[in-house]
Fold this protein.
Amino acid sequence: MSDMPNAEERSGDARSQRKSKPADPLPSALVDRDQVQARSNAQKRKSFDRMFFWLCVAIASLSVVVLVVLLVSIGFQGQSRLTSDLINNSHSELEPAKSGMWPSIIGSLLVCGISGLVALPLGIGTAIFLEEFKPANKLLRTLHGFIQLNIANLAGVPSIVFGLLGLTVFVYMFNVFGQIQVNRPSDWELFGVNHYYQVLSLEPGQTILVPQQDQSQTTIKISEPIEGIDNDGNPFQIEIWDRASGPKPADRETRLKTVKKGAVGGSYSKRSWYYFRLPFGKSFLAAGLTLGLVILPVIIIATQESLRAVSPSLREASLGLGATQWQTTRNISLPAALPGILTGAILALGRAIGEAAPVLVVLGAAIAKNRGPENLMDSVVTMPVLIFNWAGRPQDVYQQLAAAAIIVLLVVLLALNSVAIYVRHKVQSR
Amino acid sequence: MSARQNTPLPVALQKRNFRSTAASEFRERCVVAFLAMCGLTTVLITVCIVGMLVSQSWNFFQSEHVSFGEFLTGTEWTALQSQELENAKFGIWPLLSGTLRVTVIAMIIALPLGLITAIYLSEFASYRVRSILKPTLEIIAGIPTVVLGFFAILVISPSLQWFTAGAFDTFNATSAGIAVGILCLPMVTSLSEDAMRAVPSALRDAAYGLGSTPFETAVKVVVPAALSGIISAFLLAFSRAIGETMVVALAAGTRATATLDPREQSQTMTGFIVEMIKSENEYGTVQYFSLYAVAITLFVITFGMTLLGQLIRRRFQESYQ
């Protein structure tokens, strides 16, 4: 290919020479052009081209092969464990064969929800700021460029570094509030928690709650009637029964309100779902916030792309009618960009569901939990962490469980993606 | 004249309600301020990352058992193996070499395959083939990394051992590298394909007009024209492979070795971080803070890669009007 322009030049030269001296013969390069060699050269190039085409086809289909092998091998490994146990039960060290992943499904969805709640407003806001409010001012333009560069760099930060950020900032808060200790309430419990002592009543298996005044005192000994709290939160007087004073009261109602003299109660905390303390500790909220940071750049970039795709003439028309920049954004650009934003958001949430590394760093690799998180500060297990833990064990049963859990995870992701496609279709056709 | 007086004004004119311009201007300012706050939050996150890494790894380098020179040049890393701090060696090279082994293998797989797939998609593929290949790549891109790590220990590692009659360790750099390569492939493909599609078809037509074959057009015209985009895609894939965690935590092994042998175990930087977290070392020990020293190395490398990619894209991007 590279010698073609030369050939043309040469023939041009030849023509001009011929004009001046018509008697001269043509340059030898033109006269003796070896037709055979040229043809074989073309032949070679063509066959090389064909080979390249088939190489391309082979390599491109390799990705399909890889995907098929992956799905088939995991399906084959996991099919024996795809039972109702897998969905209903939780992880169990004693009975691996009956282990399941229910807490992790709930945990994953909730953590993912928190991350969406954090990252979506922040990400869409940033993208609007970058795309719709481009200032003329030179200083602000520099700020814009800087934020843009920063986002591109954030997108390249490994997710495990975000995990460490979450560990330092959310879990320990740089240790400003002191270490979290097991079985000791934090000093910075802000709301959503009540501390009680739990005392056995005379009715077997039933307990009475006594409000805790002093938090440093972990047990209480009841020797005189004090105020307790019943199941509905109403205060009542606790009766004392002494062995010396006679037989146990026969009436169930009375027995429920009576304790043995000298009964000892341990501390017990009742937490509402909005229980909040500082620092967050290895908690559901910390994990959600960290995942929010991980998906933030993804959401920003997707939103920017779809805002950029909105035709400028729409904006100009709106601005020309006297709308302000924000009115134009709210009424024109955002509705037009909505399908793209939604798709990007759902894909980012899918990423959040699949991310294991940041959650692992924030929460540790522990998976022994038999229910989903009950309050914001509760610990949580997510599906990828569970899979990581199971996949790292040598026993066959855990390998099969990991494969089965992967199938469930992929089904959840697939469901999420089909929601994305459906939403995009719905919004676009409107 | 009288008739005109009797006809009522149009509704639009009757119900004119004038809104205060000052109020709406104020609201506009509030919105802009809020959006700017959102933008500044992303900057704050970067500041937090850098601040956290620097301040926490400062604790590491402050320790009397650690020296900065040893960290940068040492060839032994025994943060988790040695119980006593005196015997622990903190030299980053085993982790770095582990990371590089995995990354290089991943790049050997992802870059050529990704580039050729991209050439195929943008130059040759018919509509029907595209409609199969593109979703396949999207699905691979959406597969959680922990799944690929499991795939590596379930399929790739045993088949490597089978092919070589057991020359590979159960956990080895190659199987992790192959899985990471599969992970990076869709990214290389889609970014390179975008860059190649941006090349105007006039260039292709010119090449065909001069008698080039499709191969020559693709390799000698389209790829050089899209080179800046392709290189920045390569760099992105590279930094993604360096930062990849779950695959290497599962499949690469846990022994930090400073060799070049791809058949051996190789602990990567990210793999060490996971191992450290799993070991539940207590907060505040030197071993714990070594986590941050490793993380800052990782961050500096990936950050440099991303910056370089952007520089190349901006400096060398060819724009066609």
In short: The longest strand of chain A covers residues 263-277. Chain A touches chain B through 89 residues (CB under 8 Å). Residues 209 and 231 of chain A are 9 Å apart (CA to CA). Residues 35-78 of chain A form the longest helix (44 residues).
